[in-house]
Write a structure and sequence with these properties.
The chain is 0% helix and 46% strand. The protein has strands at residues 3-7, 10-12, 18-25, 34-39, 46-51, 58-60, 68-73, 78-83, 92-98, 113-117. The strands form 2 sheets. A 6-stranded mixed sheet has the order 2-10-9-4-5-6, with no helix packed on it. Strands 1-3-8-7 form a 4-stranded antiparallel sheet, with no helix packed on it. Strand 7 (68-73) and strand 8 form a beta hairpin. The relative contact order is 0.32.
C-alpha cells in the first residue's frame, strides 16, 4: 500500500525557516518523481515544488522560487522541502505525493503537515 507521511510543520515567524519531510512507502521510490503541494481551507490544492527521479531536475511555483528547495534521499525513501524566508501567505497544509503530475501520480493524499507563518 502506497503511503506518504509528512512531518516538520509548525508555527514560525515571518522570515523564518522550516524543513518538511515526507517518508514514502509501498512503491519503488527511486523510480518516481516526487511533488509537494499545499492547500488552504476552501482553496484548491496547488503545486509547490517537484523533483524528478533520475537527474534531480526540479520545478517550483513562482511564488516560492528562490525561497524553497526540494530534495530527495532515495536511500531513505524521503523527500524534503526546505522553506526559507517564510511569509504569512505560505500558511497552508503541505502534502507530498508521488509523480511529476496527474498522469504519473502515485498513491493518494496523506494527512499533510500544517505550516503557519505568523508573528
Amino acid at each position: 500500500q502506497v503511503q506518504f507521511v509528512e512531518s516538520g510543520g509548525g508555527l514560525v515567524q515571518p522570515g523564518g525557516s522550516l524543513r518538511l519531510s515526507c517518508a514514502a512507502s509501498g512503491f519503488t521510490f527511486s523510480n518516481y518523481a516526487m511533488s509537494w503541494y499545499r492547500q488552504a481551507p476552501g482553496k484548491e490544492r496547488e503545486l509547490v515544488a517537484r523533483i524528478n527521479s533520475i537527474r534531480g531536475i526540479t520545478n517550483y511555483a513562482d511564488s516560492v522560487k528562490g525561497r524553497f528547495t526540494i530534495s530527495r534521499d532515495n536511500a531513505k525513501n524521503t523527500v524534503y522541502l526546505q522553506m526559507n524566508s517564510l511569509k504569512p501567505e505560505d500558511t497552508d497544509v503541505y502534502y507530498c505525493i508521488g509523480g511529476w503530475g496527474q498522469l504519473d501520480r502515485v498513491g493518494s493524499w496523506g494527512q499533510g503537515t500544517q505550516v503557519t507563518v505568523s508573528s
